[in-house]
Write a structure and sequence with these properties.
There is one protein chain. With about 70 residues, this protein is mainly β. About 10% of the residues lie in helices and about 55% in strands. Strands 2-1-3-4-5 form a 5-stranded antiparallel β-sheet, with helices on one face.
Length: about 70
């Protein structure tokens, strides 16, 4: 298991926060991020290595994700 961190900046949707968790792989981050408010972005880190930035938005009832390096 690896330690991952989701880092949310302060934005119009909420306060800045950091969520640390252990998981087999980065895909677990989407399950963790799914519980957060729509329209939020977060950086995903594996230890000290930045994996990507997740951008989440809702269009109607569809939950859309963009992942950038």
């Amino acid at each position: 298991m690896q330690t991952y961190t989701l880092i949310y900046p302060q934005d119009r949707r909420g306060e800045a926060k950091k969520i640390e968790f252990n998981a087999e792989d980065p895909s677990s981050a989407l399950r963790i991020a799914q519980d957060e408010a729509p329209e939020r972005s977060a950086e995903l880190w594996e230890g000290t290595k930045k994996i990507c930035t997740l951008h989440r938005r809702m269009i109607g009832t569809d939950d859309l994700w963009t992942v950038t390096k």
